Amino acid sequence: MGTPSDRAPLAERVEELLAAGGPLPIVAAGDPVLRRVAEPYDGQLAPALLARFVEALRQTMHAAPGVGLAAPQVGVGLRIAVIEDPAPVPEEVRVARGRVPQPFRVLVNPSYEPAGAGRAAFFEGCLSVPGWQAVVARHAEVRLRGLDERGRAVDEVVAGWPARIVQHETDHLDGTLYLDRAEVRSLASNAAMADLWSQPTPERAASALGFELP
């Protein structure tokens, strides 16, 4: 896969990844690193190396393109993720999905818990499962806790599409892929999505494909 050996210390593995320059190779489903619980970040990378790694994650996310990327997706088992969403979507999609622009941010050792009982189901994809999407029911609001890249505490309630991104990326750090939470009958190729299921909500897909929504 082009990723460094799991036996190498984390700092050496990151240095090796960064040495190639440009966007990092994204690990695909089937690689064991995506199924392991990532190691909490506790200074394994020196500040300068952490900053370089974060910038590489950002460049890789942009190049993919995506709205989030977790360190295990580039073969590094640390609890670090980046998110950013310019939300270039029509107004009806913004309203239906609660998708609003999110500035670039780094999540270190994040965790989440539901904030309220509400749930929302939408099609979702993953850079580590290219070419496919599926409907995932997730918490409509979550309380996000963790740190930023400077060690400052994060403790906030996140709603709508940003809450979905937070859950998706934090799940990666726990060895969970979105497919583990998906309605299997909703699984659709990107081509099928473009042809059939581009509506703001998945109600038509649920009726036609035979799955339930919360």
TrEMBL record:
EC number(s) on file: 3.5.1.88
CDD domains, alphabetized: Pep_deformylase
One Gene Ontology term of the molecular function aspect: peptide deformylase activity
List of catalytic residues: 169
Cofactor note: Binds 1 Fe(2+) ion.
Function: Removes the formyl group from the N-terminal Met of newly synthesized proteins. Requires at least a dipeptide for an efficient rate of reaction. N-terminal L-methionine is a prerequisite for activity but the enzyme has broad specificity at other positions.
Protein name from the UniProt record: Peptide deformylase
